[in-house]
Design a protein that fits this description.
- α11 packs antiparallel against α12.
- Strands 4-5-10-6-7 form a five-stranded antiparallel β-sheet.
- Helices cover about 35% and strands about 25% of the residues.
- With about 290 residues, it is an alpha+beta fold.
- The relative contact order is 0.11.
- The chain has twelve helices and 14 strands.
- β8 and β9 form a beta hairpin.
- The chain folds into three domains: about 45 residues, 2-Layer Sandwich (Uridine Diphospho-n-acetylenolpyruvylglucosamine Reductase, domain 2); about 110 residues, 2-Layer Sandwich (Uridine Diphospho-n-acetylenolpyruvylglucosamine Reductase, domain 3); about 110 residues, Enolase-like, domain 1, CATH 3.30.390.50.
- It binds flavin-adenine dinucleotide.
- The site of flavin-adenine dinucleotide (FAD) has 28 residues, from β2, α7 and β10.
Length: about 290
Amino acid sequence: MKPAPFDHVRARSVEHAVEILAAEDGDAKILAGGQSLVPLLAMRMAQPTVLVDLGGCADLAYVRDGGDHVEIGAMTRTRDVEISPLVRSTVPLLPLALSYVGHVTIRNRGTFGGTVAHADPAAEVPAVLRALDATVVVTGPRGTRTVPAADFFLGFLLSAVEPDEVLTAVRVPTQAPGTVAAVEEFTRRHGDFAMASVLGAARIGADGTVADVRLVLGGVGPTPVRADDAERLLVGRAPSEELVRAAADAAVEATDPTGDVHAPADYRRTLARVLTRRCLSTVLADTTRSHAA
Ligand SMILES: Cc1cc2nc3c(=O)[nH]c(=O)nc-3n(C[C@H](O)[C@H](O)[C@H](O)COP(=O)(O)OP(=O)(O)OC[C@H]3O[C@@H](n4cnc5c(N)ncnc54)[C@H](O)[C@@H]3O)c2cc1C
């Protein structure tokens, strides 16, 4: 299929983009890397009258040290985030997760803001933002506001960005030294969206108990699922095979998968349990890994 007709406007700045969005009253859409939007246009699942192209807004492409966080501009290509020395040294979960996003060619075009605004529940970056309590910055006719990741992802392909707003940046808190990160996914082919994924990060304290743990599951609900109960179960306890199994069971309780052409809901639940055990075994202690399957 071919897209329905649309006008293409190259935005000169965020303010210019906001002006056009406001004038079109909900019928315009931002074009970033086009890796998700262009297929949706081709299938006529999106039919905007105007595409507001952010490709010329070079000032939205950056990775900055914010002290206790890294700030990433919306138009930064995901591959540039993945290979950024600053990101690699301060937020190790992020480049690890990005390496699972499609293929390098897609990461060369797709943008960091695009994958966040698109809000696919199986996407890796939204899961990282939920795990690390990141903040999303959006600008619109009513000014600039910041939205915590916990309030940002509202449903399947639905985020807190209003139709007249532009996502401009994301602030990702740095991870404490000694934190171990892991990503476990199940896909039919390399580069596909995961049928289920689990992203985790943990730090073991000097007393051998879990000092901090973050656990988020993707593809098993309408938004990335933060496994709060599982995290609470783990903190302050010494890692063991039994604890990993109990935490994986608690994590699965938080999921709400739906069946589709790729996998029935029960299969996704089973994947979530197995992948959570594997992920936790890696981030908590290598010694538990051999027991998790
Ligand atoms: C073959 C293939 C495999 C893929 N596999 C994966 C995968 O495994 N994991 C994964 O996470 N992703 C995957 N993707 C998607 C890829 O990561 C996209 O790049 C990403 O989802 C969208 O980023 P984009 O810059 O291309 O955004 P676009 O496609 O340009 O836009 C996507 C949506 O976000 C909106 N938007 C974009 N930027 C902004 C902004 N700054 N402000 C407000 N709204 C905005 C657009 O209006 C549109 O609705 C895959 C894509 C392809 C083609």
